[in-house]
């Protein structure tokens, strides 16, 4: 079977974690290939996500690498055994891979934490709000492409409708609540929906008020997705130039600390809802 030309973020992540285990064992790809009855090229393809790997093969890697974190190894085996396509795969030929990677990340997460300073988190946006923030893109998108992106954004929120939906804790700066994307009525409807969806057991919305005098280092949207074990957590950053996923240990520590700052800065749940309602009534 030829190597994959474009592995998904999920496939690349499994390979990256296997590479971490190999490097922790002090082995290079040639040495690992010799231990496992293969060669350097095979190990490189697996670690780049270009070749699939079975759970049995993952356990073989773990034995030769003397990996002692059994929970991590079990989680990697589960990743290797994932089969079937998600709803996002319907868009694979029409949207850039980054869009699909976010949807799969949310789908597989054990919990989600979002930090936004300019816009409402994507999973909590109304249809009109989504259309409003896509309307003035530079350069403008063809109507068909724009429509697909809006449709895809709204479908992502289905993850919150599942019986086993991952808990979502959304930290939203007051500035984002006061932005009038789409005009007064669109903003009012968005704020009303934000209050409504926060009534779900799995959704928590907390506002960082203008009154907070500290610095929140989040000039771009941050999504923290929990994995089955802490080592498989992922940070997703979005910008005008596209998104990227971070999962190096140092990056995960940094963003865990950043969410601790947000937790201290944000109002309580009831106070947050009162502020959202107050802004809604002011419009």
TrEMBL record:
Record SUPFAM superfamilies: lambda repressor-like DNA-binding domains
Protein name per its UniProtKB record: Helix-turn-helix domain-containing protein
The species this protein was found in: Streptomyces vulcanius
Superkingdom, natural source: Bacteria
Occurrences of domain HTH cro/C1-type (ranges): 18-72
Pfam families: DUF5753 (PF19054), HTH_31 (PF13560)
């Amino acid at each position: 079977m030829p190597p994959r030309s474009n592995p998904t973020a999920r496939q690349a992540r499994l390979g990256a974690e296997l590479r971490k285990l190999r490097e922790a064992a002090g082995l290079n790809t040639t040495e690992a290939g010799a231990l496992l009855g293969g060669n350097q090229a095979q190990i490189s393809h697996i670690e780049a996500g270009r070749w699939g790997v079975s759970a049995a093969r993952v356990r073989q890697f773990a034995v030769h690498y003397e990996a002692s974190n059994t929970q991590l190894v079990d989680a990697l085996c589960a990743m290797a055994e994932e089969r079937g396509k998600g709803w996002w795969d319907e868009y694979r030929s029409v949207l850039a891979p980054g869009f699909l990677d976010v949807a799969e990340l949310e789908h597989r997460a054990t919990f989600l934490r979002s930090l936004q300073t300019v816009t409402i988190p994507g999973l909590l946006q109304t249809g009109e709000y989504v259309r409003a923030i896509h309307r003035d893109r530079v350069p403008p998108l063809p109507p068909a492409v724009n429509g697909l992106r809006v449709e895809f954004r709204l479908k992502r929120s289905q993850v919150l409708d599942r019986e086993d939906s991952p808990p979502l804790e959304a930290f939203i700066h007051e500035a984002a609540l006061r932005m009038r994307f789409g005009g007064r009525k669109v903003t009012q409807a968005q704020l009303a929906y934000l209050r409504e969806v926060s009534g779900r057991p799995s959704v928590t919305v907390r506002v960082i008020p203008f009154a907070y005098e500290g610095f929140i280092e989040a000039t771009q949207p941050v999504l923290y997705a929990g994995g089955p074990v802490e080592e498989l957590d992922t940070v997703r950053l979005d910008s005008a130039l596209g998104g990227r996923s971070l999962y190096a240990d140092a990056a995960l520590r940094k963003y865990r600390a950043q969410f601790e700052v947000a937790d201290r800065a944000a109002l309580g749940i009831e106070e947050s809802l009162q502020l959202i309602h107050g802004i809604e009534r002011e419009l």
